[in-house]
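Page 42, continued from yesterday. The earlier attempt failed because a stray header line got pasted into the input along with the sequence. Redoing it now with the clean sequence only.
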Amino acid sequence: MNGNLKIFSGNSNKELTDNICKNMSMNPGDAMVKTFSDGESRIEINENVRGMDVFAVQSLSIPGNHHIMELLIMIDALKRASAKRITAVIPYYGYARQDRKVNPRTPISAKLVADLLTTAGAQRILTVDLHAGQIQGFFNIPVDNLFAMPVLLEYIKERIHNDIVVVSPDAGGVERARAFAKRLDASIAIIDKRRPKPNVSEIMNIIGDVKGKNALIVDDIVDTAGTISQAAEALVGHGAAQVFGCTTHAVLSGNAVDKITNSPMIELIVTDTIKPDAHTASCRKIVIKSVAHLLAEAINRIHEETSVSSLFV
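This time it went through. Structure tokens are written below.
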């Protein structure tokens, strides 16, 4: 591996960074990432990065605001240490759901986070399954938005064998569901959902035939698990034989894991873009697949200035 490449990690998902480095046969960069007694982030880079191609890995997961500050301060430290190029590797891009004005006098927080990263000194962004593809346009620097679908499909094809219907939990996820259905040679269904207020959803009806089929609910983020658990109940109520779920980003806040445990879902297949807590890791219904090799391959290609486009297929 080229000696001019260094990979550093914040505290949000060190295990993922370690696995990325293992896939690249290298060690993570030496950095102290701690917190002062008053809660301020404290970061020191403990090795030379002058003139090097540096990647800072940090998911903007719970506690999101703290992890954003860690990443910004790390980027600033690397910039002041004369790194040649700084790429922010953000497996889970927090605030992505705030990508437009849905009401008067509301912010576009996803754009604000993009501005903060660029101002701090990030020269490139590498992320996985942005909630909205147009967030790439919030940046004036290159953005590589990888898809976790190949990682999820590898397991799904082993686990579910026939009569699959891919289900979108809302109208906005139809394109994602269609992409999965195409690769699984399956039909699709759509759940007509009404959301009276944030983090509260109500399942109304199902568009498409799910009776007697193995239903696979596909989403990019599962937060409170209200939508996916209600969707599973609705699918069973409409005659689905079995219900599985898959998502890239397992936020799983509040009592989400308990909702999944008590739902009729057989399994929820997730990735490790967000570090699973002990409750998530111990849940028998949650299967965690790693995107470390995908990110490692992307980092290697970016470093070697070769094409990353084949990873988007």
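Notes: The chain has a mean pLDDT of 93.
Reminder to self: strip header lines before submitting.
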